[in-house]
C-alpha cells in the first residue's frame, strides 16, 4: 500500500528483525466521513515482543479495532508505520491470522474445507492436518459438517482451527468470545491459553471484559476514549500456567481494580466531552 499523506519526517527507522514481533511508529488513522475529519488512533508508539500475549481494553469507540485492522493490513494508516518481524506492513499477510467476534467461516463449505482453504490456496495442504486441528480444539468428528450445524462455541473453535492451519506467527483476535455464554467463554479462554503456551505465537487480543484481559495477557494496554492512544500499560505478573482460580486471588483483583479505574476515568471524560 502506498500512502500519499506520509512525509519524510514520519518515514521511521526500520526496527531490527525479530520473529513474531510488532513495532508501531507514530501510528495514526484519520477517517473523513462526510467531510468531517475523525482521528481514530493517534501517534501510537508500541513494541510487542515475539511470543507476547497483549490485551487491548478501553471504552467503546477508542480505536481498538482500528488498531487491530492496521496490524492485519486491512486498512492503511494515515501516518506512521507498522513493522512485523522488521518488515513494514503494506497489506494482509499469512504471517498474521485474524479471528473476529463473528466467525468468517464460509457456510457453503464443510468445516474441513474451511480449515484447508488457506493452505489450499497456497498449495500447502497437509493430509490429516484439519483433523489434527479439530482434535486439538476438542471438536473432532465435525469435519464433514457445515458451520451452521455447529453451536456458537464450536464455530469459534473451528475458526481458530482455520487460523492455525495457516500457521501464522501472530494471532489477532477481536472480541472472539464476547457472543458466547459464560461457561463456554471460560472454556475457550483456557483453551486459547493452552494453544498459546504450546505454540508460542504472538497474540493481540481485544476485549471489553477486564477479567478476560488480565487472565489471558502478559500486558494489558488501556486506550484513551478518543482519539485512541495508549493511556496505561499494566504488567500482569501472575505466574503461568494459569487457571480460572487465579481470578479470585487478591493480586488479580488489585490488577482488575487498577484497570477498571483507568477505563471508568476515560469513559467519564468521553461522556463529558460528548463523544
CATH superfamily of one domain: P-loop containing nucleotide triphosphate hydrolases
CATH topology of one domain: Rossmann fold
CA distance, first residue to last residue: 31 Å
- CATH class identity of one domain: Alpha Beta
In total, the number of strands is 10
The helix content, as a percent range, equals 25-40%
Q: Estimate the mean pLDDT confidence.
A: 88
Structural class: alpha/beta
- Main sheet specs: 6 strands, mixed
From the spread of the alpha carbons, the general shape counts as: globular
Strand content: 15-25%
User: Order of strands across the widest beta sheet?
Assistant: 6-7-8-3-9-10
User: What's the SSE pattern?
Assistant: EEEHEEEHHHEHEHEEH
Low-confidence segments, ≥5 residues, pLDDT <50?
1-12
Number of helices: 7
What CATH architecture of one domain do you see?
3-Layer(aba) Sandwich
Radius of gyration computed on alpha carbons? 19 Å
Amino acid at each position: 500500500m502506498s500512502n500519499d499523506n506520509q512525509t519524510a519526517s514520519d518515514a521511521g527507522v526500520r526496527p531490527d528483525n525479530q520473529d513474531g514481533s510488532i513495532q508501531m511508529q507514530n501510528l495514526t488513522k484519520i477517517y473523513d466521513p462526510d467531510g468531517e475529519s475523525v482521528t481514530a488512533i493517534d501517534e501510537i508508539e508500541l513494541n510487542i515482543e515475539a511470543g507476547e500475549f497483549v490485551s487491548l481494553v478501553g471504552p467503546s469507540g477508542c480505536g481498538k479495532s482500528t488498531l487491530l485492522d492496521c496490524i492485519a493490513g486491512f486498512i492503511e494508516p494515515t501516518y506512521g508505520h507498522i513493522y512485523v518481524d522488521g518488515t513494514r506492513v503494506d497489506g494482509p499477510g499469512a504471517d498474521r491470522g485474524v479471528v473476529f467476534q463473528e466467525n468468517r467461516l464460509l457456510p457453503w463449505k464443510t468445516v474441513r474445507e474451511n480449515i484447508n482453504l488457506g493452505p489450499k490456496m497456497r498449495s500447502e495442504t497437509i493430509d490429516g492436518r484439519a483433523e489434527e486441528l479439530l482434535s486439538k480444539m476438542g471438536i473432532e468428528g465435525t469435519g464433514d459438517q457445515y458451520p451452521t450445524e455447529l453451536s456458537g462455541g464450536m464455530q469459534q473453535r473451528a475458526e481458530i482451527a482455520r487460523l492455525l492451519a495457516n500457521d501464522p506467527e501472530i494471532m489477532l483476535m477481536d472480541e472472539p468470545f464476547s457472543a458466547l455464554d459464560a461457561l463456554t467463554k471460560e472454556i475457550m479462554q483456557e483453551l486459547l491459553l493452552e494453544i498459546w503456551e504450546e505454540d508460542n505465537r504472538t497474540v493481540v487480543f481485544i476485549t471489553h471484559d477486564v477479567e478476560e484481559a488480565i487472565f489471558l495477557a502478559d500486558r494489558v494496554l488501556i486506550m484513551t476514549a478518543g482519539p485512541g492512544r495508549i493511556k496505561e500499560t499494566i504488567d500482569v505478573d501472575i505466574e503461568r500456567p494459569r487457571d480460572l482460580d487465579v481470578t479470585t486471588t487478591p493480586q488479580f483483583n488489585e490488577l482488575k481494580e487498577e484497570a477498571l479505574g483507568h477505563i471508568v476515568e476515560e469513559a467519564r471524560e468521553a461522556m463529558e466531552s460528548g463523544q
